[in-house]
Task: structure prediction
Amino acid sequence: MTWWKRHICAQPDRVEELNSLGFVWERLQSEWNLVVAALAAYRTVHGDLMIPSSFVVPHGDTSYLKGTWGIALGNTVYRIRSRQQFVNGNAERIHQLDMMGFVWDVSEHLFERYITALRLYRSLGPVGQNVRSNVLQVPSRFVVPSGGEWPPELWGYPLGDRCAAVRQKGLYVKNSPMRRRALEDLGFQFGGNASLGWLNVIHAAAIYSEIGGRLLDVPQSFVVPRPSERALRRADIEQREDRYEGWVFYDDDWPWPEYLWGFPLGQRLKDVRIKGLYLRGENAGERRAQLDALGFVWKPAMGRRFPKTLQPAEVEGL
Result:
């Protein structure tokens, strides 16, 4: 009560201000009222009650009542959470904090925010996720944009950075198998971007192999095309070795999923051959076998062209 005596009882103007607000002058009730007033003001200023432990209500800040200036609000919040100070056995005060959006479990709150952002990322479209294999892939630098279908409370959220921290440091999931399972059910991969990149490679390679008659001999310059990049003249195959020309499909038969459009399959497979990309570690043998099954050419001939036999669904008359 030392702070109370020094900053309230010895300050008549502050006592008068509190009286005008209808504060109840009984033991601890008045101090509680100040805490509530400080919490309400903090939420108005910052938008939430995630108060740093070191936060002290600044003197002279008119966003807060004078009577709350100097309160170690961060430490007070810590004591409310850890020791139930002010609220032990007082359901009315607990309800009062709940209505303000008080965060009782910071770890759970942060995890819920993270998984909410992941669910929204997945629901907003196929870009960034491997639909066929149910993999959720978030670029490491992805930050939730402002506007669109994202709620304001998530704007600016560094989702990509959080995903990296979950994989590398066990953020949110350390010693919590239930949270880990919730992320896995959502399609989150704990293996990291190398594993996710391989899934893209093998999916694109499987489609290319099927189109090419079970032969995976991909020119280095090949990039998975969008439907708008289709050629309508088979002669282009003869003229351009570095373009996906002449493989013509009906709109309904376009074989490449949207999340692979623009994927540099040729360069990735070159790196597989020359650098052993994706072929290190315990999965190396299995991945080599996958490529072999697709007809991967480990030593391609120089100056090769795209295959003239177009499969599937060649357009008649071209």
Summary: The beta strands are 129-130, 135-136. Confidence is low (pLDDT under 50) at residues 126-132, 231-246, 307-318. The radius of gyration is 30 Å. The first helix runs from residue 2 to 9.
